[in-house]
Structures are given as C-alpha cells and as structure tokens.
Write a structure and sequence with these properties.
By secondary structure, the chain is of the alpha/beta class. It has 16 helices and 7 strands.
Length: 446
C-alpha cells in the first residue's frame, strides 16, 4: 500500500506554513502519491484553492483542518487560554458541512487567542468526520508524552465515543523530536489498551528538508522575534517536510499498519464540491411582481427621472431601446435579484446621507444600473459597452465596484445584515503574501 499525507500546513496556516499550493500538488505527484490532505491551523481559508489545484493535477483532495479544542473545562469560554490540537478530515458531504460549521463557529463564538471549538459542539457535528490526535499540541499526545496514560486513556475513550465507529485514530509522527518519540511509545501502548488504530503523519510545514531554515525565519516574522532570541517559538527539527512514501515506511518500520491506515483514510474521504454555481439572495418584491418585472418597472421609472435631470438633449427612443436590450440580457441570465439587492442598499445609503461613489469599472457601462441609481454615470454619451459588464457569451457574476464613505460604511453593512439576516452576509478578506521584494526587510530584521 502507498502513503497519504493527512497532516499538512500550507501558507494558509498564516506565517506557520511555507507550502504553496502549486508546489504541494507537484511534489505529491512527483513522489508517487495519489491523494493529499490540507489541515491548516484553525481555518479552511485555503480549501477551495487547494481543491481546485489538486483536481487539476489529478490528485484526490482531502479537506480538513487542525482545530483548537478548548481545554480541561471542556467549553470554549473566555476564562482559559488552554487549547489542544485535533486533526479533522471530511469523509463526505455531511462531514464537509460539519467541518465548515466548526471552523466558522470557532471564529464567531469560540475565539480566544485561537479560533476554538469545544467537545460538546464537536460531538454535535462529528458525523462524516475523521479525527486524528494531532501533534504534541494534542491533548492525548501531551498526556502520552508526560507518561500520564490514565489521562490519555480517558480522553481517547471520550473521543472514540464522539466520532463514528472506526473514525478516530491515534497519530504518531516522524519528526525526530525527543518528546515526540516518548509520545509515540505511549500512543502505541494506548492503541493496544483502548483498541484504537494508529496512523502515521509527517506534520509537514514545508516542501523540502532544506526549507527548514526558511520556515524558521517565517516563524520569527510571525512572532516578531529574531533568530538570536532564545525565547522564540521554534520547531527543533528539519523533518517537517513532505516525505515520500518510502521515507515514511522507513520511519515506521515497526508499525507498518500506521502507514497503511493513511491510505485507508484517504480511500474513505470522498468529497466532491459543486463550484461555479451562483447562489443569489432572493429579493422580496411587491405582490403581483416577479423579480424581473419589478426590476423592469423600477428601471423604466428611474430612466424617466434621469431624463428630467439630464442637462443635454438625448434621443429618448435610443435610451429606451438600450434599456430594453439590457433588461432582456439580465432577465435571461437570471441576475434581476442581484440588481434589486444592490440598488436597494445603495439608495438606502444615499437617503441616509452616506456618501456613495458614482461607480467604477465595467458596471458603469450599464444603463439599467444608471436608471436604478446604482451608478451615477450616463454610459451613452461615452459609448460605454454593457457587454463588458454582462455578456451572455461569457457567463459570469456581475460585479459593481461601489465606494462608500469609510466613516459610515458600517451602517450600510448593518442595514444589509438586518434585512437579509446576519448569517446571510459575508465580508471578504485579501491575503497578503510574502513576495521577494517586500519581504527583504522582514528577513533582514529577524
């Protein structure tokens, strides 16, 4: 049997993982593996990026995370900093849904130094998940390391009851750290005591063994320390890299079943994502209207108002023909609800006296947007093309670039949350990456 990496950190383990997705899939393929998992610290930020690149490379992506589980009190309150690591992998669609829920609630409700979950919420959302005991940061692994097998046994049986039968594994690692060797010995004894299977991982944080030095610098940047600081966080090993199956089998020659079990887990994890489908919110329209008919009515009335505001003569028939053309395209592509949602919160903001920009980008080429007062630029005199914004030949989500006053933009977000529900509204993040030119100062400092 082969081997599959089930504990691995990419650059989405922010400043504690040095593996780029493109390098990961290439390395895994070059080393003869057919599947790989990504388990970033406390988050699933890279899940879709990873899934798409793995699929494109002909690899099976295994979606997971290294969760932080609240400490001895067993609940994610704000009174204890302690948290323990736990690897979670999705077996199926239900498991992926539970994984998303756990990662989200960890940030929304359990965040205290880390995005944390507790054992109660894990038990309520454990279906379709596989659990591994993780690194030396795991509760069971820590207990095994210090020789407290009674505690390790008690927690192992607790997790055995939380997960579905056959879905919880004791994780042994190959990192060469003395404390890990002690933990491995305890975990092997524990496996016999409580009848739980072992699984072997490399806890990969970088691609090649020689990348260990670069990863050490990365951790210094993350913690604001220098290499000369003895108190800095460090991994006292250069073996947290993407090992080959042969290397892993050599490391676990005494327990080959731990390596075999990685492939059994990989075979059990089969999550297929449906990507590229628009999931638009529905806009509540007046009785007797559909979204299409209501948008058309608002646009026609809005254009009539614009005619009264324009300070120059226009060919009104040409404007109406352009409006009808655009409405037909929007109706055909199913985006009426999107236009209604956007015009609603923009016009609300204007009524509240919140400064709103005139609109930027390709959206300024839409006469419907101008008529609905989403934008404030008449596209006709400037020969702006609606087809740059929406084109039936190139189906993609419409995207309006709208600027709100930075001092009052939160009011607009709150309005949208109140109207559609806080659980229906998301904000986006931009991840900054350490490019060569910008990172020189940080590397020089550490």
């Amino acid at each position: 049997m082969s081997f599959t990496h089930l504990h691995l950190h990419t650059l989405y383990s922010l400043l504690d993982g040095a593996i780029r997705m493109k390098d990961l899939v290439k390395t895994v393929k070059d080393k003869g593996m057919s599947a790989v998992a990504v388990t970033d610290h406390g988050n699933m930020f890279g899940a879709i990026d990873f899934y798409k690149k793995a699929k494109d490379a002909g690899l099976k992506p295994i979606l997971g995370t290294e969760a932080y589980v609240a400490g001895p009190k067993g609940r994610a309150d704000r009174t204890e900093k302690v948290s323990h690591h736990l690897i979670l992998l999705a077996k199926n669609a239900e498991g992926y849904a539970n994984l998303r829920y756990l990662a989200s609630t960890a940030y929304l409700h359990g965040f205290y130094y880390h995005p944390r979950i507790d054992k109660q919420v894990l038990a309520e959302h454990s279906k379709g998940l596989i659990g591994l005991t993780a690194c030396l940061g795991g509760e069971i692994t820590q207990a095994a390391c210090r020789g407290d097998l009674d505690h390790a046994r008690r927690v192992a049986l607790e997790y055995k009851g939380i997960f579905e039968p056959g879905s919880f594994f004791l994780e042994v690692q190959s990192n060469g750290i003395p404390e890990q060797e002690k933990a491995n010995a305890g975990l092997k004894q524990l496996a016999r005591d409580v009848d739980l299977p072992l699984v072997a991982t490399a806890d990969a944080h970088y691609i090649r063994r020689e990348d260990a030095r670069a990863h050490e610098l990365l951790m210094c940047i993350a913690s604001g320390k220098t290499l000369a600081d003895d108190r800095r966080m460090r991994h006292d090993t250069d073996r947290l890299y993407v090992m080959s199956p042969d290397e892993m089998r050599a490391c676990f020659a005494d327990t080959p079943e731990a390596v075999d079990n990685t492939q059994l887990i990989a075979d059990a994890c089969n999550v297929e994502l449906s990507l590229g489908k628009s999931m638009l919110p529905s806009f509540r329209v007046p009785d007797g209207h559909t979204e299409d008919s209501y948008m058309a009515e608002l646009a026609q009335k809005g254009l009539a108002l614009r005619f009264g505001e324009l300070g120059y003569p226009v060919d009104r028939d040409a404007y109406r023909a352009r409006l009808d053309l655009e409405l037909g395209v929007i109706r055909k592509m199913g985006f009426a609800g999107y236009f209604l949602v956007v015009q609603d919160f923009i016009n609300w903001a204007k009524k509240q006296g919140i400064p709103v920009g005139p609109g930027r980008g390709s959206g300024a080429g839409s006469l419907v947007a101008y008529s609905l007062r989403i934008t404030d630029l008449d596209p006709i005199p400037y020969h702006l093309l609606f087809e740059r914004f929406l084109n039936p030949e190139r189906v993609s989500m419409p995207d309006f670039d709208i600027d709100f006053c930075q001092d009052r933009r939160d009011e607009v977000i709150q309005y949208v949350q109140q109207k559609y529900g806080a659980d229906q509204v998301a904000q986006i993040i931009t991840f900054g990456t350490l490019q060569a030119r910008a990172v020189l100062r940080d590397v020089g400092r550490v």
